[in-house]
Amino acid sequence: MSTYNPPTLLRELRDSYAFVERNLNLVKRYWGWELAFFVYSLTSSLSVIYIGKAQGADARHLVLYLVIGTLVWAYLRSVFDSISEMIAWERWEGTIEYTFMAPISRTTHMLGTALFSVVYGLLRTAVLFLAIGLFVDLDLARANYIGALVVGVIGSLSFIGVGIMASILPLLFTERGAEMTFMISGILLLVSGVYYPISVLPGWMQPLAKISPATYVLEGMRRTLMEGNGVAQLGDVLVPLVITGVVSIPIGVWIFLKVEHYAKRTGRLKRSG
């Protein structure tokens, strides 16, 4: 008697949900960490925003510029961290060998982690936005929310690819590998125009800004939320993000699989970081 096997895509989505659920359970288990990180994100964001407010009564545009920068970066950093540190979490929980030997594809593992990173990042950023709104008056009368949503979705894909590439560091460096991913996020923070326009960067840093997906996400978000630009006006932002996502995700998965094979062959999965 034959059994029905669901289509591959549906099966992948079903199995991926197990990783979404597991990551949600980790958030519940370590709620104290989540609270500490949220308070730190809020206070650091407000510190930057109040620098803008200190410029005087005519600083409303600057304040909104900084608020969008801090919120967008908080979201992108959350997506990046969730994916780039997935191996570190496996080691921390002592489940890395079980996960890597389980009869599931690595794509399923990454898809579940990516889905969680986007959902969790959106919820966390929404709460952060509401909290910042208690301290700062925001004028979003001209905002184009549909355009912002499109930029956010496509920008998420590009950062998922970058996060997958960065996730090889905890595999290669079993001790403090997760901390090495901070180097990548730090460089992106510096060159992407989170708190200032990239035009102020030295000439030799401009190429780095041009290849950072965060640069285009931030530019697109500011144009949709501050100037009311629609999707039709964002081609110069969306095209680089689409290209980055389409290229970085498969390359990231390919690199990860190669490094995973190396880690298994050299016994790096057994070591605690």
Notes on the protein architecture:
Helix 1 packs across helix 6. Helix content is 75%, strand content 0%. The protein has one domain. It is mainly alpha-helical and 273 residues long. It is globular, with a radius of gyration of 20 Å. The protein contains 12 helices and no strands.
What's this entry about, in short?
With 273 residues, this protein is an all-alpha fold.
**Helical amount:** over 70%
Give the strand tally.
0
Number of domains: 1
Structural class: mainly alpha
Give, in order, the helices and strands: HHHHHHHHHHHH
Query: Radius of gyration, rounded?
Result: 20 Å
Which stretches of 5+ consecutive residues score pLDDT under 50?
none
Write the layout of secondary structure elements.
Blueprint: H1 8-29, H2 31-53, H3 60-84, H4 86-93, H5 96-101, H6 106-133, H7 145-166, H8 168-172, H9 177-191, H10 206-211, H11 213-226, H12 235-266
